[in-house]
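WARN no homologs supplied; continuing
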Amino acid sequence: NVRTVYDVACASGIDSIMLVEEGYDVISSDAEENMVAELPKQWYQRRVRGVLFALESINSVLYFTIGMPSNFARQEDRPCADGREARVWHLYVGDVDSRLSNYKSTLLSILEGRNVRTVYDVACASGIDSIMLVEEGYDVTSTDAEENMVARAISEKERRVAGGDARFANWRVGWGDWLDLVDGAKVEHPEGGYDAIICIGNSFTALPDFEGEGKTHRRALKNYRDLLKPGGVLVIDHRNFDYLMAHKTLPPASYSSIYYNCPRVYN
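OK structure emitted
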């Protein structure tokens, strides 16, 4: 006998509109202001029919920001601009060593088998994977589209260097948007490109296809290709979404290798 419904992830309002049309008293919110703004005014005017349909924006506790530079001209206007999402992300990562143990040997075997020396981590977040690669002796460049994540990585670099770890002195870290990495990334790319580019942690799936028909994803992939040396290797990973859609659960083998290890994550 539900009467009132709160749609806490309304996006552009598709589900909320359906519920309003079914006669429910609906309140809707989303962490992405542009999603809220996408709800056409004529829909709102035509379909509210006297019931409450409040469009409001709230700050999500965990807000991923791939592609957000195109949505917000000023960083201070972005949701969670205070860095809260970067801090909360680490709660989901859990113990760093435990996380790395799930895939470190696989990643290193890919790089070692191709005599890789220079690596570009295009989704570095706060630098967990990049730090591991620096420790393994690789020449690493790291970028992320989320400035607060980058700030954490830079802070960790400075801490390591101040502590006397010379391996981190040449670690290049800065902001970078996958759709404009060649000229727009705030790092200096090595002449001739990289031996390897990695985009791991289920990161590539977070890129919306802004242009449709896969054009946005192909543009990102072209940026990767243009920064790879001839014969270089691109490493992208993602969850087994086909299995998830078919069975509504993770594949059995993945229970020992999922990225997020903290007890807050429940399957």
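Confidence is low (pLDDT under 50) at residues 40-72.
OK
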